[in-house]
Backbone:
């Protein structure tokens, strides 16, 4: 059950940090290690290459990238061209690119480059939390700030990671974990101290896409899912999305950011198992089926397919769009926008990297 953790315990995105002066060109700045080099990691590398002038001004350089089979390690910092070359290496073969080191892992990356910002873009595993969980503690205990798109470490050990970062004055950035590309995490931080009445939201793009196709094309779930896979919205194995793990992990991150000690085990998960008949029946009654994550302090924490009023804020989120409604009594705050996709995720990671380097100086 969720309990109010109190303001003193509430996470601070710039844990232990405040506004920082931008580094002088060529001095200070940050040494970035990108751990995980699949869709999101590669898109981040491309984005950093495209923004190399801005990164130079900030003093940010990428010193290592790693996938499950090796790494590319470059203590002087990769050039933009080298980053683009690395992003074009075949999957699992980043070590075939510039400064490639087959078989090297996170330990070699730390020993040889001493990164100051660790960017975690490995797969989310909600049973063990690995490899992200070990990487989070390795990073923070080595003095590196931790920026993550991987939800599992925070979904499983949120407050341990927050405490580890806070006790060392390091930055913890996780804008990319929930509604990546739409700044929900910053919005939640702006609501600390408010009394939450309820949070509800569409936090998973795959289930919302599938339901949108079912409603608009009047096809069964299996057919809508095939379309979602064909356009690259759904993974070949979409079970983490359809069984609610992804939405539940995001709900845990949201609730904890607002100061509630909600765990993954507290979230009731109902899979997306609606029939076309359910969808049509709801439409006839002026309602729409949506896969909604809901949290009420002292009450329910649930992810489930539910009916919402046609024309309501959540009903209007189509396809891969996410939407949330946060009731804090004196105000009902609403936010909608993209939630994921490799480009949106890379931009969310970049926003955290810039904040880690500069603080929240505009
Ligand atoms: N894609 C999105 O739109 C999105 C949005 C928000 C959040 N996220 C989260 O971001 C993370 C990455 O997503 P993605 O789409 O980029 O996944 P992905 O394409 O599967 O890439 C994962 C990468 O992690 C690497 N990896 C696995 N184990 C590793 C280890 N022990 N050490 C180093 N690297 C390891 C993989 O190596 P190989 O290449 O060798 O397999 C791969 O390069 C996930 O946790 C996901 O939930 C993704």
Residues:
């Amino acid at each position: 059950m969720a309990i109010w953790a109190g303001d003193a315990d509430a996470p601070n995105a710039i844990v232990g940090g405040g506004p920082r002066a931008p580094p002088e060109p060529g001095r200070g700045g940050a040494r970035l290690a990108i751990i995980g080099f699949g869709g999101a990691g590669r898109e981040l590398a491309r984005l950093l290459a495209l923004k190399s002038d801005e990164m130079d001004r900030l003093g940010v350089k990428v010193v290592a990238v790693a996938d499950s089979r090796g790494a590319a390690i470059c203590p002087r910092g990769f050039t933009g061209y080298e980053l683009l070359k690395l992003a074009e290496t075949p999957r699992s073969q980043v070590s075939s690119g510039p400064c490639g080191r087959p078989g090297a892992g996170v330990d070699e990356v730390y020993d040889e480059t001493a990164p100051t910002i660790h960017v975690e873009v490995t797969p989310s595993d909600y049973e063990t939390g690995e490899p992200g969980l070990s990487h989070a503690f390795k990073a923070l205990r080595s003095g590196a700030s931790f920026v993550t798109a991987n939800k599992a470490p925070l979904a499983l050990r949120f407050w341990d990671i927050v405490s580890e970062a806070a006790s060392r004055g390091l930055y913890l950035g996780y804008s990319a974990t929930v509604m990546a590309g739409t700044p929900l995490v910053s919005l939640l931080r702006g609501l600390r101290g408010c009394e939450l009445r309820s949070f509800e939201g569409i936090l998973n793009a795959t289930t919302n896409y599938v339901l949108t196709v079912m409603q608009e094309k009047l096809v069964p779930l299996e057919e809508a899912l095939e379309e979602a896979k064909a356009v690259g919205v759904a993974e070949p194995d979409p079970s983490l999305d359809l069984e609610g793990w992804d939405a539940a992990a995001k709900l845990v991150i949201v609730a904890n950011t607002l100061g509630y000690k909600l765990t993954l085990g507290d979230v009731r998960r109902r899979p997306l198992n609606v029939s076309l008949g359910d969808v049509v029946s709801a439409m006839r009654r002026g309602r729409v089926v949506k896969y909604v994550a809901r949290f009420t302090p002292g009450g329910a924490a649930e992810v489930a397919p539910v009916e919402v009023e046609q024309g309501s804020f959540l009903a209007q989120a189509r396809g891969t769009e996410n939407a949330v409604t946060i009731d804090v009594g004196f105000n009902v705050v609403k936010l909608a926008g993209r939630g994921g996709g490799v480009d949106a995720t890379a931009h969310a990671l970049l926003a955290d990297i810039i904040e880690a380097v500069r603080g929240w100086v505009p």
Remarks:
- The two ends are 38 Å apart (CA to CA).
- The first helix runs from residue 39 to 50.
- The longest strand covers residues 287-295.
